[in-house]
Design a protein that fits this description.
CATH superfamily: Uracil-DNA glycosylase-like domain
Number of helices: 7
Number of domains: 1
CATH class: Alpha Beta
CATH architecture: 3-Layer(aba) Sandwich
Strand content: 5-15%
Order of helices and strands: EHHEEEHHEHEEHH
Helix content: 25-40%
Length: 170
Amino acid sequence: MLIVGLAPGLRGANRTGRPFTGDFAGDLLYRSLVKSGFAAGTYGASIDDGLELLRARITNAVRCVPPQNRPEPGEINACKAFLAGEIAGTDGLRVILALGAIAHNAVLAALNLRRISYSFAHGAVHELPGGIVLADSYHCSRLNTNTGKLTVEMFELVIADLADRLAIAT
């Protein structure tokens, strides 16, 4: 499974070198990945905490920290080839999990697929050409959880459903 976020976080991945490490989104993401068998160990918000991803990797739609923490269309377009390369270079890829509509749309652009054919919706699962599944979740940011747009249970259910789809023992 390839997890696609928005961009490196200023206080998280940009500081530590591991996506989602050191910010609230990482707390929820890594705890959910461990719970569903996509990671092992204990997440301690540090690159050397011993957490190990299993059958999963994480990338972003944009490679650099964007102004105001929200990627602009030009940045997303400039990073499209990078994301396409990440997708193509992930051996045995069966599932892409897009964290938010921006990541969802960036994945479609990287694969040269039309957005109109695959609308973003939390919990949606899209069968893409070539057999890859694109699954959607609201981004696991503090903003989304504080406003109730995304609950821990909603996020964990998406991850658990993907584990079931990939037949990962929990």
